[in-house]
Amino acid sequence: MCTLEKHGNVFLLTLTGNDEHRLNPTLIDSIRSALSQARSEATRGSALVTKADHKFFSNGFDLAWAQAAGSASSSRDRLLHMVDYFKPVVADLLSLPMPTVAAVSGHASAAGFILALSHDYVLMRKDRGVLYMSELDIGLTLPDYFTALIRSKIGSPTARRDVLLGATKLRAEDAMKMEIVDSAHDSAEATIDAAVRMGEQLAGKNWDGEVYAEIRKGLYPEVCGVLGLTDKVIMSPKL
Question: How far apart are alpha carbons 203 and 116 in whole angstroms?
Fold first, then answer.
């Protein structure tokens, strides 16, 4: 599950509990509910910071929940359901009318990596935790919106190759060199503190959130097209 708190103009979304924050329908519903609340309560100059309790940011889809269906075909159906069910979370983040910051204070694997990458900024703990697209190692192909997001957010073809075709487990400092994360920090607390400070700084810009969201969508047309997000023109009354 997750919680949403507001400190000044910064929304703080926390994946709660001491588990791996595996993305199953229950957690996905909770995240979408929190993002919907942030959207409805957003004002000019809002920002969002996402963090997680304990040593995992998110270890990806809840494969145990899928396998608990019993038969191979039912497990496959559950996995495909999670893939489809998670897609709107990425759309919600890419269309959210405010800057977003992910504080990755532990492992972020597969869909958990995608969750982090869906934010505008990614800050990461450097003393433990990895970014890891595990699909090649476990024998799963990638959903179209995963690859579209990675092409949109990771600029280097070599970095994309290493992430997807090398299944490389990236520590924070290597991810910084590959320009996947924005900064690396000494502990979970330092990572979260830095993310909140960044959120406050971004909120202090006092930007129009709807304009911000439209510019973001224009920056990533491929993934936004796959997600079904459309553009709209906004003109300030100041003009």
Answer: 20
